[in-house]
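can u do me a favor
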């Protein structure tokens, strides 16, 4: 009954597979649909090129961190502490298959110390995932910082049988044109926005549609389809039921 109202076969199949794979109950499935997990995964996929070092279907964009209950004027350290305090909720929003490894992971190389904000291991991808948390818009220098971390992790922390580490930079503003220009995905780095408050239903849907439209326009300008041989079909948003947003009139 929850899947039938969805307007595309792709969305129905995605949520059906998620329900089967993770044994979701109706409440959890409705929660996933109301937070538009499929649409946000599609946005993240559209940011990837055919030469991407970031696996397809690995991340979402944006991430909804309203579950962390952050206060106004929070700092990056506050965000990090909130994530660790609500780690289970964060991992469920981040994606299935993630295991927490360390907070403020220190890596020492030739007498110099480097610190990764959060380090995870993904069992399905079989690789380490470094996460950097940033306030404000994405900046060019973040790429070099993350590339350095990934090289260190690859040399010093990667175990036999694992794939190369990948990274994700979470910003309050993704600056998507800069991300595209720097070809972040080819370096094995994803960049996603995070929202600490869930917008109203209408604003949420409009914002996602705006991000999707911009991503498609960038792909058309490049003359490429996301992931090459798999062009995306037009996206249609679900029509949420009244109880999906119980706090709204």
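np, heres the sequence
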């Amino acid at each position: 009954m929850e899947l039938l109202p969805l307007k595309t076969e792709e969305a129905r199949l995605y949520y059906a597979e998620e329900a089967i794979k993770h044994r979701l109950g109706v409440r959890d499935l409705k929660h996933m649909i109301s937070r538009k997990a499929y649409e946000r995964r599609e946005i993240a996929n559209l940011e990837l090129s055919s030469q991407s070092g970031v696996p397809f279907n690995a991340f979402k964009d944006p991430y909804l961190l309203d579950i962390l209950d952050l206060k106004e004027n929070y700092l990056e350290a506050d965000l990090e502490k909130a994530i660790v305090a609500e780690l289970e909720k964060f991992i469920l929003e981040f994606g299935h298959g993630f295991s927490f490894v360390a907070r403020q992971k220190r890596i020492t190389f030739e007498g110099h110390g480097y610190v990764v904000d959060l380090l995870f291991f993904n069992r399905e991808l079989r690789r380490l995932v470094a996460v950097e948390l940033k306030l404000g818009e994405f900046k060019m220098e973040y790429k070099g910082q993350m590339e350095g971390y990934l090289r260190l992790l690859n040399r010093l922390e990667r175990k036999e049988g694992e794939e190369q580490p990948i990274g994700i930079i979470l910003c309050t503003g993704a600056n998507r044109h800069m991300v595209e220009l720097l070809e972040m995905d080819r370096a094995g780095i994803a960049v996603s926005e995070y929202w600490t408050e869930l917008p109203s239903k209408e604003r949420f849907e409009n914002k996602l549609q705006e991000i999707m439209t911009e991503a498609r326009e960038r792909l058309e300008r490049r003359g490429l389809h996301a992931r090459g041989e798999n062009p995306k079909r037009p996206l249609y948003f679900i029509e949420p039921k009244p109880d999906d947003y119980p706090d709204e009139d």
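The radius of gyration is 18 Å. hope that helps!!
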